[in-house]
Amino acid sequence: MSNLTAFFASRWGIISAGLFIGVLAPILQHLGNPPNMGICVACMERDIAGALGLHRADVVQYLRPEIMGFVLGSLIAAMVFREFKPRTGSAPIIRFFLGFFAMVGALVFLGCPWRALLRLAGGDGNAILGLAGLAFGIWVGVLFLRSGYNLGRSAPTKAAAGWIMPVLMIVLLLFALFEPQFAQGGPIFKSTKGPGAAHAPLIISLLVGLGVGFLAQRTRFCTMGAIRDVILIKDFHLFSGIFALVAAAVIMNLILGQFKPGFANQPIAHDNHLWNFLGMTLSGLAFALAGGCPGRQLILSGEGDGDAAVFAIGMIVGAGFAHNFTLASSAKGPGAFGPAAVITGLIFCLIIGLGMRERSRT
Amino acid sequence: MSEKIDARGLSCPQPVVLAKQAIDKAGKGTVEILVDTVTSKENVSRLARSSGYRVSVEEKEGDFVLKLEKA
């Protein structure tokens, strides 16, 4: 067991997690998931928000089993390796809104960092702008970290608190399996056209999600952390994971005929460079201030971190607002109020970054 | 000189930031850092080793005491 733990903590451990995601995400696309969206935590949480009726964009409504898999896979890994530690109390209300605005930024770009990497690996040049924005947002976050920014300590709590997120995921999984109707026409909503109607078979999505959740829990895979550690402490450990992800996904896309280089007419993407950049700047900053990318937050919630769970719920609620209030982009470009929402989010993050600094530390 | 830091309950990357500040300040000598998750234990250990420190870990009531030493 300790040998396994040492492997997962090693450079090859994190590379194996990147390879696992990089190989399987394009396969999920091949089996039905939307293009360059084999795995996208933001998009998939947005689809879940839609399936629950939190927004009514009928093309993006589906209970994505990958998300349930991430949390439950992490839970299993945490249980097996005795790392399930229920904890909470580190500025949950701030984390909720960091999640909210992280989702708004991600839906202006159209993807979380994982999808940004997968879009790049599929030849979508717009991902370069998104990733540049992500890195810039994280760099701003690092400035705050260096100046004493800190959301305060969490405290250990009882098992009941740590189980809320995993149980919520089990309930969603049951909804996905049995598709109950709570009112005429839904919820549970399920897209019949658009990206929400494109999905791999449920059991395969769930198994891949469980595998990714398990591996990501063991290796601490985190896209935001990858870039942050390079900037903050010149540590390339996590970065080697995302590098492996992109390399594997490029090869898989070439094999599966899914590599289509260019900027125009990329699937579920727009080519407005400014808002691709600024959308992900907002997300990157929010992730850095919250201490993890959306995938990492789900993994943490599976090992009992109630604050990470609040961030994830904030993202799902944010997705509801993003579509109800025309903040989310479409293939045509940013939504009517997307740019205003990104600026609002950036102002929020800057206030939090400045306001939550500890001037003197022991 | 020996410095003691309590990084329990702090989310990533705070324990690493605190450890780095302590290492930079200490130069040589011993830094003791208390963390409460395996993730923090791994992250701080990796940072310390890459900075030329020897790391020893002691588990104490579910927490980890990391002793970073440089001769």
Helix/sheet category of chain B: alpha+beta
Largest sheet of chain A: 2 strands, antiparallel
Overall pLDDT of chain A, averaged? 96
Q: How many E strands of chain B?
A: 4
Shape of chain A: globular
Main sheet properties of chain B: 4 strands, mixed
What percentage of the residues of chain A does DSSP assign to strands (E)? under 5%
Shape of chain B: globular
Q: What's the arrangement of strands in the largest beta sheet of chain A?
A: 1-2
Round the Cα radius of gyration of chain A to an integer and report it. Answer: 19 Å
Number of H- or I-type helical stretches of chain B: 2
Strand content of chain B: 35-45%
N-end to C-end Cα span of chain A: 36 Å
Structural class, judged by helices and strands of chain A? mainly alpha
Q: Tell me roughly what share of residues is in helical segments of chain B.
A: 25-40%
Q: Give the overall average pLDDT of chain B.
A: 91
Terminal residue distance of chain B: 11 Å
* DSSP strand tally of chain A: 2
Unreliable stretches covering 5 or more consecutive residues of chain B? none
How are the SSEs placed, and which strands pair?
The complex is a heterodimer of chains A (362) and B (71).
Chain A lengths: L1 H8 L1 H20 L10 H11 L13 H16 L6 E2 L3 H18 L3 H9 L4 H21 L8 E2 L2 H20 L23 H18 L3 H11 L3 H20 L16 H18 L3 H9 L3 H19 L13 H18 L7
Antiparallel strand pairs in A: 1-2
Chain B lengths: L1 E5 L7 H13 L2 E7 L2 H13 L3 E7 L2 E8 L1
Helix pairs in contact in B: 1-2
